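Work package 3, deliverable 3.1, input record:
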Amino acid sequence: MPESTWNTQGEAKRQSVLNLIPDKWRLKDPVPPAAELRDVTGNYIRQFLTERETEITETDAVDIVAQTSTGNWTAVEVIEAFCHRAALAHQLVNCLHEIFFDAAIENAKQQDEYYAKHKAPIGPLHGLPVSLKDTFHVKGVETTMGYIGWINTFEGNRNDPRSGQEESELVRELRVLGAVLYCKTSVPSTLMAGETVNNIIGYTWNPKNRLLSSGGSSGGEGALIALRGSPVGFGTDIGGSVRIPAGFNSLYGIKPSAGRIPYQGAPNSMDGQSSILSVIGPIAPSARSLALLFKAVLAQEPWLHDPLAFELPWRDQIVEDTKVLIDKAKAGSSALAFGVMKHDGLGRIHPPIARGLKIVEQTLRRLGHRVIEWKPPSHAKGAELLGQIFQMDGGADLKYHLGLSGEPKPAQVIVNTEGNEMTAYAIAALNVAKREYQKQYMDYWNSTAAITGTGRPVDAFFCPAAPHAAVIPKEFYYVAYTGIINLLDYTAVAVPVTFADKKIDVKSVNVLGDDTEHVQWDYDAETYDGAPVCLQLVGRRFQEEKMLTLAEHLGEEIAQDAK
Amino acid sequence: MPESTWNTQGEAKRQSVLNLIPDKWRLKDPVPPAAELRDVTGNYIRQFLTERETEITETDAVDIVAQTSTGNWTAVEVIEAFCHRAALAHQLVNCLHEIFFDAAIENAKQQDEYYAKHKAPIGPLHGLPVSLKDTFHVKGVETTMGYIGWINTFEGNRNDPRSGQEESELVRELRVLGAVLYCKTSVPSTLMAGETVNNIIGYTWNPKNRLLSSGGSSGGEGALIALRGSPVGFGTDIGGSVRIPAGFNSLYGIKPSAGRIPYQGAPNSMDGQSSILSVIGPIAPSARSLALLFKAVLAQEPWLHDPLAFELPWRDQIVEDTKVLIDKAKAGSSALAFGVMKHDGLGRIHPPIARGLKIVEQTLRRLGHRVIEWKPPSHAKGAELLGQIFQMDGGADLKYHLGLSGEPKPAQVIVNTEGNEMTAYAIAALNVAKREYQKQYMDYWNSTAAITGTGRPVDAFFCPAAPHAAVIPKEFYYVAYTGIINLLDYTAVAVPVTFADKKIDVKSVNVLGDDTEHVQWDYDAETYDGAPVCLQLVGRRFQEEKMLTLAEHLGEEIAQDAK
């Protein structure tokens, strides 16, 4: 397809989304350029909202549900406030792919009627607005996943009767739980990028610093939730795509182990590649919001509806056990131990990240936790395996979907679409090498029992989620900090730590002792100023209950120390 | 390698195993030919044993542990009895690859000393002899997996320092639990066969009818345990390799879902193929023996040592819940419902299998359980996917390992070693097709809630494990009855039902109503006479606790009705 055609199609789609924003919610005046006004969160966006809308939209998911499920707030007023704020967010940073506010308000009305009649909520998420990355099917709504070639199709197939008729399993469950769905958020075409850019909506900017990226691939979620246009949303993560945008937007986001949150019926890139499975996880401003959603979804028994989901209900016992350890630590006994990995020997970290690591280590020690240096098996080896897996089909799947329209591949995509396909025998050898790496890492983890002082291996470890804070456009290319966690199928939570500060995070300071060269790379203190800094809290496989409990506890303490 | 060389190597290895049998345990007189004496179980083998040895070896695992862990029986007398009987079994049907009786007796002595000192067992399997398929590494013992090219190597690699030094994770755990390991059992070279034959030990015969196969690929386990040369052993199953030899030998055997029993460190065929994972499961004369071993292994928390194992402890609650349903059914309420699939439309079943299905259906109805006809999504489609997955690498892995010595491929191997390798893009599409098939099957299972009368979907379903009873050599070629369960990753237990009887199971009888042609195929009533007949009890994914509880309950009732 010639450029004029795909370009026109993209432009028409982009405009059709904007057209769905009611007049009353459109910005009348132009937004100042990013160079003049980096940060559009907080007071900037609040100026367009009523006090009541601000109150509602700045309430976290747990407290929203407390209001809606007791009839204090109606589902309609809640969803209207979020629709308004989401519309503003999109106009500020380009974060939406699909808008279905009318259907959402209709849905909320029915919920209010249900509540009026039964004096009881529909489910544990009654009236809670939930945003979705544009990698889920919602009935009556298109899914483009950022591909021009998917416009007016079902996953690229024209005249497919499933078009607009399907709902992904998670979407079905969210409706049963009482969630109100109202928008789908932007992704990079191919999904294989740490920034969010495509030929339909363009670039999704970081609301805290519009010179920077909102991260990717769930970048629309990150940007929307940072602006409180959504209290909680679902992204997907095969190499960091939940954690990167969560972290780049000062939010919490969990990448669970594969098989906990149902992926059934959700479109994907390179679907069927089974060496590393993409997973779904929520993103929100508070860790407890993630736990609320996680627990609610598991109560729907997704393993009865998704053949790749595991029969592993939410384990309250693990939450309780973890709280006991936290309380013991508070009382002065070293009950919890953490590893801290300052860098992986490859991805040279910037000063703000180095400072974030110091803050976290200081918090851990202040709380009386044991801290050990995390010296795992070679991350270089893990990065090599990760690269081979992402490149397994030589980029054939991505090339096919870009080729449907002839649109160009965004520069940020980390997969080479002109590579060679691997064959079965080589793939099997790669899977064995991956398993052996997992085993080495597991053995290392077990071995820390000898040095933690708790009698057990570390409970979790902290490490960077990226070498940098929310990144300068086109400068995200090192994905191994997050990707290795996917290779290992571990559970990880992005935890907000601080913000880059040009006055403190000076380029020439040797923040890592003798590792000066690791922080002298492409760091630009001026541009990064104000960028959210996050770290990953990494737990063993299937330890979502424990990691969310620790993230809530530690996140609050870290926030205090970062002030 | 010229025939003379591989043949000589195989013969030398075969002889070296025989040489490990002490003189006192060697058969002095020739065994009558199979045509004269089909059945060497029971009284035939007992003639070579003392009364005490017979008593010990005909006790099931649960009762053995009850004796050894209270000091009534010593570990040494138990292991000596089983070593003796295993030695006899090997001389009768060719079922052993490795013998390490001396190490086992030494191990048992240490256990007895431990017991004498502590007045307590080492673990829940204290003093229990456990046999292992020759797909596990045991320190000081070779693993050939039936390949000539693996003799004097580590998995085919010469001068590998791991040779004789490694123990598979399951083996390590069994030792911690107190099991006594003493032999490894025969497999078909490549493992991809429903009979057991290789160029080292030759053919493993069925002890109940030595004209027939012991099944495969865990055929050595099946034959050894049928002769009570072992109370319980572990096999592996990627297409039926636990269930087929269990069923062909009138034993119970469970194929769990992938990830419950640790596979870490166990050699395999086509290792790294990850579309269908091979799984490990125990085989024994009683279902409760399987539960004993299963529960014991899970208590070792294999997920902390095997990156592919799941954190899913043994769930006593499911056992209890299932027993409540069984009791309710006994009390007259229809609390349990079963599907029965008489044939899959492809694998034409023989009269003994058709009769087995009738017996089971009759038992289910007698016990007051609901029975529905099982009409799942096309098994033809499932069989097609299964075949593509087994053929994924074009047989390259098997060809490589056979090629190490130049030995020929046994005729029974179901994989074509001269096929074409699939590429990554096609493999991904195959994985998607497999997942869609799993989803259809899952939806069908859920849909039965509307017709069971219990308000729930069926609890399990019964179907053949093969078209025939223990098979005539070279006549096993239809693996889809069991293989589709691997494709689905369901839990299945082989349940013994009856024995082929030439007087009842007559070729011309139309046992399946209008499906006469399904039973007229290659059935030979005379040869099959006396062959064990089994069925599969199939449960949902990860329902091992429930399936073992049902298998124990139903197996006993079926045995009564089959008399």
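Chain A has 19 helices and 15 strands.
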